[in-house]
Amino acid sequence: MLFLFILISVTQIISAQQLRVGVLTEYDIQRILFSYNEGSYLIYADTFEFGAILPNEFVDISITSGDKIQLKKGVEILGEFEKINLVETIPSSSIALTSKSPVVKERKYQDDFEITLSAKGLIIVNLVDMNNYLAGVVESEGGGGKELEYYKVQAIMCRTYVLKNLSRHKDLGYGVCDRVHCQAYHSMLKYTPKIMDAVKATESLVLIDDKTNSKGELAGTYFHANCGGQTSNAADVWNTNLPYLNTFKDTFCIYTKQATWEKRISQQKWADFLVSRYNYPLYDSVFGPMIFTFNQPERIAFYQSPALGVPLRDLRTEFQLKSTFFSCYPEGLDVVVRGKGVGHGVGLCQEGAMKMAKYGFSFQQISLYYFPGLKLVSYKDFLFFNQKIVSETEF
Ligand SMILES: [Zn+2]
Ligand SMILES: [Zn+2]
After folding, report:
1. Rounded to whole angstroms, how far apart are CA atoms 244 and 214?
2. pLDDT at 187 > cutoff 90
3. Where are the domains of the chain?
């Protein structure tokens, strides 16, 4: 009996997986229009229903001086409320959002919306079906024109991430935001139908780490554009030590377009930064003459020597370098910085994974190449065997 109950409750969690995703979260929205795109929506405000949004119609939502939300249908004022809901009456309907204050380009999203008020502006939450969300995220993060197996890998990583972070922005009334802070979600899936094929083909699959914690937990599925031929230790980037995020040599990405880069920085700025911030020993007989000369054939964490305490990640941030995997030398009045790869280098290397998919590797092989030691399992099975996680991830 208990077995049956658990099975039913787990199945319900999976099939009714609707996420709360904050959209337009980088803006303090004061006024926004929702206009008809596809399907059918009903308008609710607090306890009232105001009918459907018909083709060529829009609702105009703004903040009044009395700290309420004003709802207009076209130019007709319907009243002032605490909460507005736009609820689809046909599955996978979609609606267009155009922020008027501040002005933001139109975006389209599927499924339902909830609009409430915070001290800064309107909080716009997309209550979206898991698959529709993942398809939008994979397209926003990875773009079009890639192999199906690559999209499957990206779908698994994005699914694992969102399930691990269902309460990340709980204070604001949603789980994940639409920025790179969580996962970029700039629109519903628009141009690449095979992304939805990849999402459905990997339905429910997630990456689990059962080494760090014997009960198993959803893995940290980090990714970056190009590792430059060697991935980074997570410990060197974020001070978190996880065995599946250790450095290794990646030969799949080294001949791609973002594999190498060069940047010139004035010697004055380079030296000022090192001396003022880290007290770089300019007059030391060993390190002084080396201030502009650095060779990094394999990834390390510090400039010149750990003893000097200059993390490469700080140089990357200060001089907006594409990665920390660089060497440099002086030329004229500049330091010439020659680097490999783009991004933090932890976890999956997107260009390497794309190349593997082109060579015919499966999504399982690619996932476990970049995240060695993890397990690829159905989230349903994982929840069933690990009830602790259910309570943690419920929002
Ligand atoms: Zn976020
Ligand atoms: Zn790589």
Report:
1. 15
2. yes
3. 19-128, 129-221+356-395, 260-340
